[in-house]
Amino acid sequence: MFKILSAKRIAPKEYDFWVEAPRIALHTLPGQFVVLRPNELGERIPLTIADFDRGRGAIRIIFQAVGKTTAMMAAMKEGEYFLDISGPLGTPSEIAAIGTVMMVGGGVGIAALYPIIRGLKELGNRVITILGGRTSELVIMKDECAVCSDELIVTTDDGSEGMKGLVTDAMRAVVSRGDKIDQAWAIGPSIMMKFCALTAADLSLPIWVSMNPIMVDGTGMCGCCRLTVDGHIKFGCVDGPEFDGAKVNWDEFMNRMKQYRDEEKISMDKYQAEVGDLSWL
Length: 281
Ligand SMILES: Cc1cc2nc3c(=O)[nH]c(=O)nc-3n(C[C@H](O)[C@H](O)[C@H](O)COP(=O)(O)OP(=O)(O)OC[C@H]3O[C@@H](n4cnc5c(N)ncnc54)[C@H](O)[C@@H]3O)c2cc1C
Ligand code: FES
Hints:
281 residues; alpha/beta; Rossmann fold; 2 domains; 7-stranded mixed sheet; 28% helix; 31% strand; binds flavin-adenine dinucleotide; binds FE2/S2 (inorganic) cluster
């Protein structure tokens, strides 16, 4: 059992939890994730380790309530327990002294980007961070990302904060003002990562993306998380989650993500019928 040390709502449908997990915290590196089951009735879901505190023996997860399991988790409070958490899982990010890096985050993907930004800054890289969202309140972790970035650019679709436009507009603006970027990362919704990868190709930038296929075991056993990269089948959970964005077969990936839509909707509808109003999420 894993105790919730703190539980906060940080944006509409977005939650920030610190959870007691000393052995996971001890071994975590940026880019890794856990597979978590809230209770005996819940399914297992993968979530990135957004931060870890080895001294306190705790890990941080930041999640968006998009379906039954994440909605159930949103209702959990400090002092309650998750039934099981496995991790750290996945191949860590390639954190090295690279030069100038462009870090692009969207929505709840910012949580996954943050430990990578921090790791790259600690190694002396020049870090230009671009965070985007539909509107200002959905751009999370701005202060924490700013502390470990040389420059922070915020973009919003509605212009409520920072530059009005998409993160890809900011990627182009940074390159066109003359900055030489040695490596880019993009983490966010699949459609955002696809367009970041296309923009990076256009700008001749190498780019890592963090793929979020549906996962079951998270250890390379079930094949559920497979995707095609450079014409080869890869497993998101063990070969990734990070891959070269230029080599991902995006259309196949996005089609696979839709395959359980009907079942996911039935499950959420049943949950809503059980618990009633979910407008507080
Ligand atoms: C390695 C990895 C790390 C992840 N890290 C985070 C994280 O830090 N924070 C976070 O909020 N989410 C993260 N996700 C996505 C998260 O696992 C899903 O949102 C979650 O499984 C949804 O479960 P559910 O039962 O609430 O919703 P479901 O009923 O399973 O799905 C509801 C909706 O969410 C979509 N969905 C389901 N699974 C995923 C998925 N894997 N990625 C994107 N959309 C999905 C469905 O298509 C559907 O529209 C990560 C996924 C992976 C593979
Ligand atoms: S989740 Fe089962 S092989 Fe990756």
